[in-house]
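Lecture 7, part 2: worked example. A protein chain together with PMV.
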Amino acid sequence: MSKTVTAAAHPNLAVVKYWGKADPRLNIPANSSLSVNLGSAHTTTTVCFSSDFDQDVVRLNGAAADDRTAARVTRHLDRVRRLAGRTERALVESVNDFPAAAGIASSASAFAALSLAASRALDLHLSERELSILARQGSGSACRSIPGGFVRWEAGQDDASSYAYQVAPPEHWDLRITTVIFSEQPKEISSSDGHALAQTSPFYAARLAGLPHTLEVVQDALLARDFARFGLALEREAVSMHAIAMTADASAGEPLSGPLSGLYYWQASTMQLIQQVQGWRRGGLPVYFTIDAGPNVHLFCEGAQQVALEAELARLLPAMQARTIVSAPARGAWVVSEG
Ligand code: PMV
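Predicted complex, written out as C-alpha cells:
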C-alpha cells in the first residue's frame, strides 16, 4: 500500500484564452495564454496505490465515475506510473465544492489536484514545472492551476517546453471575479470540439497573429495594475475567441456534423449582460467581462467596487434567474495531507 495523499487545486479563468491545439495528443496549444486562479472553488482529490487492487477505482463527488471519466483518469494515472516506474492500481476519490456545470471548468482543478496527489503518493517529488507539464497532458488548461495567482502558460514547441508559471502572486492585485451562472446544464458543445474546429475559421490566422501583442498588453496592464487597460483588452480577447468559434465550420466536425453552421456558446442572457456591462462603465462603474466555452459570464472588478457591483447585480439577476459565485485570485495546487 502506498501512502494516502490528498491534494487540492482551484480552477482557473483565462484572461487570454487558449483556443486551438498545435498537438492534440499532448495538449500543446496553438498560443500562449494567461489566467487567474479562482479562490471560491476547488477540487480535493485523494489517491492511494496498492498492489492489492486489480484495477483503478475512481469516485467523483461520492459516486462511481462514469466509464469515460474513469478511463481518462486511468490514462493519467498511467502517465504517473510510467514516471515512477511503478505498476500498482489506485483508488481515487475526488470532490468538487462547486456545481459540475457552473461555467467554471472542473477539469482544470481536477487534473491539477490529481497530478499532485498521484505523483506524491508514488513518492515522486516533481518541480512546479514538471507538475504543470503532467497536468497539461491530462487536460490542457489544468497546467495553469498548478502555480498560484496570475499564471502564464507558454505554448512552447514540445512536451518539455509547454508549461505554466506564475507572473504575479494572488495578493498582487485585489480583483474580484463574479461568475454569473445562467445555465447549469452540461454544455452542448465541448471545448474539445472548439479547439478541434478553430482552424476552420477564416479569421483564425488573424487571431493567432495578433495574440503575442494581446498577451503583452494584458500582462503589462496586470503587472502595472492598470485596470481600464487590462479590462478592455480582456473583453476584446474573449470576443475574439468567440468570433473564431462562431465562424468555425461546424460541419467539419465529426460529432457535430449536421445543421450547425458555427459554434455558438452564447445565449440571449449572455448578450444582455455584455450590453449591461458597457452601460455600467458608461455610468462610471469599472467592470469588464470574459466568457469561456459556455453561456456564463465572468465579471472582473477591483475589490473596492465589489459592493457597488453586487448592488447592480441584485437589481438585474432575479429577472434573469441567474446566480453568482464571487472569487478572489488564489494560490496554486497544494498538498492537504499525506501519510
Ligand atoms: O483546457 P480546455 O480544453 O478545457 O480548454 C479551455 C478553453 C477555454 O476555457 C475556453 C479557454 C482557456 O484558456 O481556458
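The longest helix spans residues 204-224. The chain has a mean pLDDT of 94. Keep this in mind for problem set question 3.
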